[in-house]
Design brief:
- By secondary structure, the chain is an alpha/beta fold.
- The chain folds into two domains: 2-152 and 314-429, FAD/NAD(P)-binding domain (3-Layer(bba) Sandwich); 162-310, Beta Barrel (Elongation Factor Tu (Ef-tu), domain 3).
- It has twelve helices and 18 strands.
- The protein has a six-stranded mixed β-sheet with strand order 6-2-1-7-18-17. Strands 10-11-13-14-9-15 form a six-stranded antiparallel β-sheet.
- Helix 1 (10-21) links the parallel strand 1 and strand 2.
- Helix 2 (62-72) runs parallel beside helix 12 (414-429).
- The radius of gyration is 22 Å and the shape is globular.
Length: 436
């Protein structure tokens, strides 16, 4: 039995590898490089676009727990991500080119996977997983729209600039992780009040790239707001967000800073770094002026400017079961950001579940609906809950899981809460047997 998977991004690649190791033949369709998205830069499978970070690996963090759940469930891409990791404190960040290259080679070498480089414009009438992502082509978007009989919702994602580390002035910039936790793996550019005020003035008056008519009225996802949108909320918004100075002190001076811009390693060679929280839609000339106003980046060389792109997701609460199977066609599943799961980790996890459940469906076995006591189960329940009236993308967080009982004096202890929820989740998962 063959399975079609539309899209060789994070979710599609994970689903393909899950099905292949269970003995199924997979036709994995990827339209790149024949049809590009405007955000991708390579033709590799599982390309990271907006950032190179999968978020926290700490099990007491919602995103961290999801990664540990994937390990228990036999995730393929999470293991590759660990092999391709770069220093990022408590986060799991990767060398994005090494990661996508490794995934691509693993897919090409798998005898059960046929990687087909062509655009799909209609939904196949045989077993299929749609993992075409938030940048689904316009032609295939129309096919999905016809199938779902519903309008799409849209939001915007913005990408942060990447710079060369050799062009950073380390007489000003310094290495540190917040509160000195873990290895000092972030580059920090400190600002005093006068420097911040100048930066803020440039930012709030900088010209932006105009939206196309079809993009107007779309929304931003709250956790990926462009830096200029955050700045418009008030002069101190950035200082309490991505430019928060707390816990970041240059030991050479011992001075407390008014604001700090952080840069995170983007490749294993440590030659490229991206600006943390600096997603933007400013015109490129304005980006250069803004970045070079940051102390330590006066002569920085920008190798990739920030851009903004439109994302699309289906109305999953009306269309999907928590197994990611569509309600009105049993051999059709969705996975990835097109379902309304926001984030790289979440995309991989949904591809893992879709791949397992497609295999179960084809083997006439019961589909797995993970308990809400697990992060992946809670995430799937959230995006498919038919009671939603204003569905918006969501990422992994403790708020979507059933609460745990804490002693009254410990109710504000976030670490303890995370530890208990993580233990509960992993205990539940150990009882689930996944056939291969």
């Amino acid at each position: 039995m063959e399975v079609n998977i539309i899209g060789a991004g994070l979710a599609g690649s994970e689903a393909a590898l899950q099905l292949a190791k269970r003995g199924f033949k997979v036709n994995l369709f990827e339209m790149r490089p024949n049809v590009q998205t405007g955000a991708h830069t390579t033709q590799d499978c599982a390309e990271f676009v907006c950032s190179n970070s999968l978020g926290s690996y700490d099990i007491t963090n919602g995103s961290g727990l999801l990664k540990h759940e994937m390990e228990v469930l036999g995730g393929e891409l999470i293991e590759i991500a660990k092999e391709c990791s770069v220093p990022a404190g408590n986060a799991l960040a990767i060398d994005r080119h090494k990661f996508s290259g490794t995934v691509t080679e693993k897919i090409k070498q798998n005898l059960n996977i046929n990687l087909i480089r062509e655009e799909v414009t209609q939904i196949p009438d045989t077993p299929t997983i749609i993992a075409s992502g938030p940048l689904t082509s316009s032609k295939f978007t129309e096919a999905i729209k016809e199938f779902t009989k519903s309008e799409y919702l849209h939001f915007f994602d913005a990408i942060a600039p990447i710079v060369e580390v050799d062009s950073i002035n380390f007489d000003i910039a310094f290495w540190a992780s917040r509160y000195d936790k873990g290895e000092a793996s972030y580059i920090n550019c400190p600002m005093n009040k006068e420097q911040y005020d100048k930066f803020y003035d440039i930012l709030t008056n900088a010209p932006k790239i105009e939206q196309h008519d079809f993009e107007k009225g779309a929304k931003f996802f709250e956790s990926c707001l462009p830096v200029e949108v955050l700045a418009a909320r008030g002069v101190d918004t950035l200082r309490f967000g991505p430019m928060k100075p707390v816990g970041l002190i240059d030991k050479r001076t011992g001075e407390k800073n008014y604001a700090v811009v952080q840069l995170r390693q983007d490749n294993s060679a440590k030659t490229l770094f991206n600006l943390v929280g600096f997603q933007t839609n400013l015109k490129w000339g304005a980006q250069k002026e803004l970045l070079q106003s940051i102390p330590g980046l006066e002569n920085v060389n920008i190798v990739r400017y920030g851009v903004m792109h439109r994302n699309t997701f289906i109305n999953s609460p009306k269309l999907l079961n928590p197994t990611l199977q569509t309600r009105n066609r049993k051999d059709l599943f969705f996975a990835g950001q097109i379902t309304g799961t926001e984030g790289y980790t979440e995309s991989i996890a949904s591809g893992l579940l879709a791949g397992i459940n497609m295999a179960n469906f084809l083997n006439n076995e019961q589909l797995i609906e993970l308990p809400q006591q697990t992060m992946l189960g809670a995430l799937m329940y959230y995006i498919t809950n038919p009671e939603h009236t204003n569905f918006q993308p969501i990422n992994s967080n403790w708020g979507i899981m059933p609460p745990v009982e804490l002693p009254k004096k410990e109710r504000k202890n976030k670490k303890l809460k995370g530890e208990l929820m993580a233990k509960r989740s992993l205990d539940v998962l150990k009882e689930i047997i996944l056939p291969l």
